[in-house]
Every structure is written in structure tokens, then in C-alpha cells.
Write a structure and sequence with these properties.
CBS domain-containing protein; Arc Repressor Mutant, subunit A; alpha+beta; single chain; WH_DNA-bd_sf; 436 residues; DRTGG; CBS-domain; Udp-n-acetylmuramoylalanyl-d-glutamate--2,6- Diaminopimelate Ligase, Chain: A, domain 1; 14 helices
Amino acid sequence: MTTKHEQIIAHIESLDVGSKISVRQIAKELAVSEGTAYRAIKEAENLGFVSTIERVGTIRIKRKHKENIEKLTFAEVVNIVDGQVLGGRDGLHKTLSKFVIGAMKLEAMMRYIDVDSLVIIGNREKAHELVLQSGGAVLITGGFDTTDEVKRMADKYHMPVISTSYDSFTVATMINRAIYDRLIKKEILLVSDIVIPLHDTFYLKVDDTVKRWHELNERTKHNRYPVIDEQMKVVGVITAKDLLDRPHDTEIEKVMTKSPITVGVQTSVTNAAHQMVWEGIEMLPVVDNYGRLLGIISRQDVLKALQLANRQPQVGETFDNMITNQLKEDPASNGTAFTVEVAPQMTSHMGTASSGVLTTLLVEGATRSLRHMKKGDLVVENITVYFMKPIQIESQIRVSANVFDLGRKFGKVDVEMTQGTQLVAKALVTAQLIDR
């Protein structure tokens, strides 16, 4: 039987994209308290199919697929530029295909406008009209308003007209940065990407008996199940090992492993893999913010996801990427030594290489050498770093790694950084290895 919380989530998901949602409306329609309705709406927002916009309210949006996460909805643009919606609220859920700065003559500008594009422009009312007629949305910079006719057209075509106090360059920079951040996030696999949802999950209740476990085992061929209470909260996990020589009428609550490790939908797959390997767990329950069961992930699902992620093309650079891309392998070192020049971006306000950059380079040298010796994924467990001497800008430095302890699950690496013949930094890195 589904809980009130799950019923509200399902109801919200069934609404048409673009529908307005309010706590009072949900509470009235589903006969629940406003507090329960509020928590469910926030959960829907975390799951990505609801968006809240200042001065507009909460609306149902299209849930983003992982491959399209870099796309922004017009609702998100409003929040990014701290904008005000002047018209076309019914189109806020739509996804923008591109943005154009309309700093040109009308005839030239119209060649660049497609359906669902966003045109960043000042107080040019004629241009606003032409953009809407072409299926685009309008973002007016400088805090200007527009005509009532443009607002009526926006409502008619269901395309937003937004006003912001920022100038065109600042707005373009803000939107570009938001898209770039999403390109980086696209690489980060989350538990929500691989979770087996609740309707496909087999679980036991605290008052079930060992006989019920055997029935599920015969039906599903699985031997690990989450255990829930009457509120759908995960209170335990039961495995075949827990049931050795137990009579069939024994209650599950008496033999289950209590207070199990769980993860949320926003947990990274790498983090989940770390917990599974560290604790020797084959299955993890996935829960919401209140500990209620949303589904499960298995060790096999996690490893498949990590392998898939490693085959994806690079789509966005993090600061770590920008630093470590400077490392060049010494061909004669067999994957254990690298060289790099200290670029201006790597320095602190003192003009020497920053400690954060040096730590990143030391860890990268260690992990590359581990991967060279043992193919697979890894998670850095511990780093001990020593800095002996400041390193000046444009200095040539060498990172040398020595893997001195390598097992099935762990690797230890001693890393040295030298400038010429001088030792300038040293680190001991311990990493957890995840077999594919």
C-alpha cells in the first residue's frame, strides 16, 4: 500500500507540464495536511520535475534526462538572472535551444532565431514582437518593461517575456556559466540514474516471517531485501546469511540487520561504490529525506555505471581537469613520472604555486600510476602531504610516484615532487580500488 507522500508525488508527476502547483491546492485535492503537501512538493523539486520561481510560483516542468541535463528551462533562466516574468508564464517549463544577443538590425537578427531560442535584447518593442512571432522567448535587459501588446502576444504564443536589471554581457555570461556547470554535472553519475524504482523493488516488512523471505527468494532468485516498517521507512536489511537454521515462523524483525547503510537519490555513484566496497555490501536501499524506501541499487548496477561513465566523452572541464591536463608523462618512466610547468593560474597571491594545486598534482600522479598498474576505478581514501620549499611561477617540476603496496582492494603510493634536484613536496596517498 502506498503512503500519502508517495500518492502526492505520483499525483504531481501526473500533472501536465506547465501546471501551477500550490500547497493548499494539493492538500485540498488529496485530503492531506499542508505540511505533508509541502514536504512532497519539495521532494518533487529535488527529483527534478517541479520548479519554484520567485513572483511566479511552483510549476510542473519536464524532468531532464541525463543526456540533456545541459539544457535550461526558461523557468531556470528566470532564477539565474533574477528576472521578472512580464508575460507568457505558461511557457516557462519549455527548454531553450540556444540564446542570441540581439545587438543588430532586425533583419539580420531574425536569421539567428529558431523555435525555443532566447533572445537577449533591450527595450526594442518591435523586436520583441518579431521574436515571439518566430517562436522565441525574450529576455529584456536593463530593467526595462515592454508594451501590453507584447505581453498579450507572449500569453498567446506561450513563450516567456522576462525582464532583468543586468546588462546583456552579464546576462550572457551568467547563462553560459550555468550551461557550462551543467556540462560538468552531466559527467557525474548519481544514484537517481541507476536506482531500481520502488514498483520494481522487492522488500519485506518487519512483521513478515522467514517463510516470506523464502517465497521471495524462490520467485526472484535474489537473497537480499530491505526491510520496512508501516511508514515505509527502511529499518533493516535481510540476507540469506541472517536466516541460517531459522524456523520459518520467525519474524524478520528478530533476525534482520538493523540500522542499515542507505543512500539518497542525489548521492554520487562513486560514493555509493565506495561504501559498498568498504563495507562489503552487495545491495543498498535508496531512501528519501525521511528514510522512506524509494528503491535499491546493486553492486553490479554500480560497476556497470562506472564503466559506462569512463566511456563517455569529456564535456566540461572542472578546475582539477584544468590543472591535471598540464601533466605530461615521461615516456621513459613507464607511467610513474610526469612533468609540468607552473602556469600563472596555478599560483597564489604570493606568486608561488598554491598548496591546493600542488596537492592536486601529487594525487593525480599517484592515481595515474595506480591505474597504470591495475586497470579499474579508484577512490582516494587518505592523503598526507608535506611541503618543503615554495615553487616559483614558470618553474619546471617533476612528479614521481612509487606504488609500494598494491592489493586487491587498496593501493598505497609514495609521491615526490622535485624542482631540478631539490625535493619540494612529498605525499603518501592511499586509495580504494574498485574492480570492474
